[in-house]
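S1.2 Input.
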Amino acid sequence: MTTSPHAALASPQRQRLLWAIRSSAATTAAMLATGAGLPLSTVRFHLGELLAAGLIDAVPAPTTGRGRPVLRYSARTPEVADAGYPMLAGILADALADPSPAPVAAKAADAGRRWAHRSLPATPSALSGEQITASVAGFFTELGFEPEPGPGQAGPDQAGSGKDPARRAATSLRLHACPFAGLARRDPGAVCSAHLGILRGYLDQLGAAGAEATLVPWDTPTTCLAGIALAPAAVAAH
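S1.3 Output.
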């Protein structure tokens, strides 16, 4: 029996487990139970719901002995090529409906942020800087951007870098794919700004108070570069 992602994530415990899985390349039910402080039976039930919703995958770990193989869980990357366009269309329609005289890029970024606030669950507890950046990387993987985390590379030419030019991004994400590449190359001001707004809204939902996000469209012929500058408290916890 399938479960919708929204229904699966209605449980704060399942949200915590999904954050933990996103932050790890592969993990087991026992590891998750230890980290979450939950009974193993409870964790296995929630993992079943996440599997039914298509949010995670499970594969047997290699074993040389007898007995039931241990399953390793990882976050799933869904097919977004078709499903993502209604999302983007809704964001851009919201931006076009904005009667303010603001530039299109600013309207698209605000609309993307509003979409994230409406559509994404808020994290149930405080996250460290490391957990925040891992969650962002996992989320953009699910969206189909194939992010490669790296050290902060924010520079003065990065749009949205904030008022403090000396502040450096704690993390960069080189985006090796874009599910909307054709549109983004024709109109990066609208499409890429919408993605920047989604990133900012996702950071809001993670409780990353004071975080700054940047996005340089097509900083190379085939990639874009996102940056995350965390507030001092989050960086200290990184």
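S1.4 Remarks. The mean pLDDT is 81.
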